[in-house]
Amino acid sequence: MSAKTGTSGARQQRLTSYLDRLAEAAGHADRAVPLKLYCTGLLLPGERKSVEPMAARLAPGNVRRMHQSLHHMVADAAWSDEALLGCTRDYALAAMTKTGPVAAWIVDDTGLPKKGTHSVGVARQYCGQTGKQDNCQVAVSLSVATWTASLPITYRLYLPELWANDSQLRHQAKIPNDIVFQTKLEIALGQIRQAIADGIPQGTVLADPAYGNDTGFRQAVAKLELSYVLGIQSTTTIWPPGTQPLPAPEYSGRGRPANRVRRDAEHVPVSAKQLALSLPAKVWKTVTWREGTRRPLRSRFAAVRVRPAHRDHKLQQPREQEWLLIEWSRGESEPRKYWLSNLAENIRLPSMVALAKQRWVIERDYEELKQELGLGHFEGRGWRGFHHHATLCIAAYGFLVAERSRFSPSVRGGILGLSVPQLPPNFQPRGSHPP
Question: What is the pTM of this model?
Fold first, then answer.
């Protein structure tokens, strides 16, 4: 990195150019100024990134006027989230892939705790941020990741059935008519299919057991001709190496011939945990997957070829073999994590472990999006505002990701040394009265 490219003045110029691109993607010219201001507000120092405190930081002499402008931009203006996220993705990916190709597509969902009940999609459901059932919104995302950087490229609110089927709630939150109830897994698969259609450089699909434990999800990803390393629960049933369900019984000459594989009292699958506990000591290998902050991150792993067994007694053929990857750290009484993967049979164990562990980057992304860019700070209640705010947070984060990839790995929001854009003469927020 040269001294010139690393200065705050050069960074300000790059941000200005980037915001111009975003403004063009947003469409109407009257959206350009508030969009640039909103993104700048997200990147400036400050604990709270909802509209009012950002307005106070951006225009301390005329907070009300600025508030009107920012609120209209995020809650009412009909610009395309997809277009802006596409612009963000293209800009960030160009920088991310300078040092290496896309390695993974990461499926995840994130919870946003809420105190009230009127914000769109709020329900009592599992919230990852609090680690328990809580009053929250949940959004599903797909991220692209290289080995050194990652970025969410799609972000969609999960709408519980209570909201999807209540016409009054839909009207109050202005939920579009074409939005129907979908499970998180269905939303994720839609995002994956759209990424393929958009020509995004492909990577191995990664997800935690909330997605990977579902046989239909794994099969759908494989049908799209994508590789995966997906977390599963210890109770997931499998056929151990060298075993599979019994073939259909021979035709007796009477009735309809049986054509489904079968089990019997002595020939049954086992759980992933049962298999892990039965493996000999020689199959467990210590693998280091990356350098941590204080020391290299390493643990013990085993990988064996198995066949998933969930409801396979309804199938005519056994399922294909795939990898069962297991982590069992030294000193622990039992294995702690499990994955199923359709990666190539000749893949090396360290390579598979590295991919499985690459999912951690989404935790880092969401931590920064929430703590420094205000992803969960939007105080509006509508569908459009929820997604517009998230899109602009991701757009701001995309700039940081590109800066780290090209120039300085330590760049973070709030310490960029940015200046506040000057308002044009006689700037008038849409929907506001003349001063």
Answer: 0.91
Across-strand partners of 262? 246
Q: Which tokens is 48 given?
A: 């709270």
Residue 392 near residue 34 (C-beta atoms within 8 A): no
Task: Tell me the β-bridge partners of 270.
Answer: 238
Hey, is 159 helix, strand or coil? coil
Helix or strand holding residue 186 (H, E): helix 184-197
Q: Where are the alpha helices (DSSP H) in 105-183?
A: 161-164, 167-173
| Alpha-carbon gap, residue 397 to 84, rounded angstroms | 13
Q: What confidence tens digit (pLDDT) does each residue in 54-94 have? A: 998 898 888 889 999 999 999 999 999 999 999 999 999 99
Chain centroid, CA 250 distance in Å? 48
Asked whether the beta carbons of 229 and 352 are under 8 A apart, the reply is: yes
Tell me the torsion sign for CA atoms 292, 298, 304, 306: negative
Q: What is the CA radius of gyration of the chain?
A: 25
Report the length, in residues, of the chain. 435
222-276 tens-digit pLDDT: 999 999 999 999 999 999 998 888 777 776 667 677 777 777 778 889 999 999 9
Q: Is 107 helix (H, G, I), strand (E, B) or coil?
A: strand
Question: Is 358 within 8 Å of 206 (Cβ atoms)?
Answer: yes
* Tokens, residue 344: 């190539």
Q: How far apart are CA 295 and CA 279, in angstroms?
A: 29
Q: Which amino acid is at 246?
A: L
Q: Mean pLDDT across the chain, nearest whole number?
A: 90
What is the distance between the alpha carbons of residues 277 and 342, in angstroms, rounded to a whole number?
Answer: 22
The rounded distance, in Å, linking the Cα atoms of 36 and 15 is 10
